[in-house]
TrEMBL record:
Residues 11-283 form the Tryptophan synthase beta chain-like PALP domain. Gene3D superfamilies: 3.40.50.1100. GO terms for molecular function: D-cysteine desulfhydrase activity. The modification N6-(pyridoxal phosphate)lysine is found at residue 34. Keywords: Pyridoxal phosphate. The lineage of its organism: Bacteria, Pseudomonadati, Bacteroidota, Cytophagia, Cytophagales. This is 1-aminocyclopropane-1-carboxylate deaminase/D-cysteine desulfhydrase. It comes from the Bacteria.
Length: 299
């Protein structure tokens, strides 16, 4: 597992060693946290005799893309329930087009019904229409996602004080907390606006998985950059400059916002002087194809 030192002036001024954990390099087609969250869910689907994975996501969802790839690699049928009417999604953006190319059947759901996707009546109707399936929640965050993410901590063969990760549904951070077992400190940076609810979701996940509610973590909600899947000119500029400095491309939804947050917190003196801070690059680079198309980006 590659730990890349980030020589940033903010870290030098703070007296902190800043490292980037390149979890985006762990698998050629399923890198980062998405594979970790799927690993034990795939085993459970097999154990229960399922041949189909059914899951949910927006039009640019890293999770949908990962499940489609996992289905192709494992021979499982995959169904993606996409938020929004089909006519509004045509022609398919690169994320959905690749998911379909990987064999995923796309089923479009109007936004009002999509918001009710956890209700038994809605799930029963989807299974009636699309066939029996192992259901994965949006973002892949359930209790079986946690042990795969916890393994990252076991693989991290280095001394550190803080472990930092971007948060969408909170499953990755919850998994890291179970791996840390109350040791060290964890920090989450929310990628979406109005994400205070994630604190309860993360506590609920760790309680369900381990019977423990951890206190060695914080969630920062001020670095969403305008909202989920919003790419401001400032964030794009940051991504380009970061790549020039370190030779690493950050994804536009998660890890870019994480690093913006970590560098700002360094400037603010948040981290203890003399400490080691590890930020996790969780992958998600497939999202750039959609952003390039939508915004005609040269990046």
């Amino acid at each position: 597992m590659l730990l890349q030192p980030l020589h940033e002036p903010a870290a030098d001024r703070a007296g902190v060693q800043l490292l980037l954990l390149r979890d985006d390099l762990t698998h050629p087609e399923l890198p980062g946290n998405k594979w970790r969250k799927l690993k034990y869910n795939l085993q459970e689907a097999r154990r229960l005799g399922h041949h189909t994975l059914l899951t949910f996501g927006g039009a640019y969802s890293n999770h949908l893309a990962a499940v489609a790839t996992a289905g192709r690699l494992t021979g499982l049928r995959t169904v993606g329930v996409v938020r929004g009417e089909e006519l509004g999604q045509l022609p398919l953006n690169p994320t959905l087009a690749q998911a379909r190319a990987d064999g995923m059947e796309l089923h479009f759901l109007d936004r009002a019904t999509y918001r009710r996707k956890h209700e038994p009546a809605v799930l029963d109707q989807l299974l009636h229409t699309l066939g029996p399936a192992y259901i994965l929640p949006e973002g892949g965050s359930n209790t079986l996602a946690l042990p795969g993410c916890a393994e990252l901590v076991q693989e991290l063969k280095a001394d550190f004080d803080y472990l930092c990760v971007a948060c969408g549904t909170g499953g990755t951070l919850a998994g890291l907390l179970t791996g840390l077992g109350g040791q060290h400190e964890a920090l989450g940076v929310a990628a979406l606006k109005g994400a205070d609810f994630l604190r309860d979701d993360i506590n609920q996940l760790t309680q369900q998985a381990t019977g423990t509610t951890y206190t060695n973590w914080t969630l920062h909600t001020a670095y969403h950059g305008g909202g989920y899947a919003r790419l401001s000119p400032e964030l794009l500029h940051f991504v380009r400059e970061f790549e020039q400095r370190h030779g690493v491309l950050l994804d536009p939804i998660y890890t870019s916002k994480l690093l913006v947050g970590v560098l700002d917190l360094l400037e603010r003196g948040y981290f203890r002087r003399g400490s080691t801070v590890v930020a996790v690059h969780t992958g998600g680079l497939q999202a750039w194809a959609g952003f390039r198309e939508r915004l005609t980006l040269p990046l």
